[in-house]
Amino acid sequence: MLKKFSFIFPITEPVTDKGRREGLSYIHTGDWRINGEAYKIACSSPNSEDIFEFKIDEILYEGTDINPVLTTTEMVEAVKAACFNHIQNIFNNEHENDQLPQHKIGIPLGKIIYMPLVLHRKVK
Questions:
Q1: Can you tell me the distance from the alpha carbon of 5 to that of 56, in angstroms, rounded to the nearest whole number?
Q2: Residues 6+ apart with CB under 8 A from 35
Q3: pTM
Q4: Rounded distance, CA 91 to CA 49, Å?
Q5: Which of 49, 82, 106, 124 is the most buried (most CB within 10 A)?
Q6: What's the pLDDT tens digit per position in 78-101?
């Protein structure tokens, strides 16, 4: 079974922070959009875990594909781990989505409450 996937991978940079217990905090520096295809391989026995394979088509940073020039193996492994986690969620949650109640079109799912915005300001 083939499924296309796309998700945002946040890029962070560790910074020393003496105020934290671990001594580190992270600064968000940008986002990568990961696009690819995932495959679920059928298992022969019902007790074995599902096997997933994926192919990353492109890694976009500000609209430019950086997949061919991505050289840091640490970042490549982090992207692959994020892809694997995302793919597991896609395939494992597909049956849960089928069991959600189907609402009829035109019936509101919730009531919209309008509250007037009143600003009272004291002027001296």
A1: 9
A2: 4, 5, 6, 56, 57, 58, 59, 60
A3: 0.64
A4: 12
A5: 82
A6: 999 999 999 988 887 765 544 444
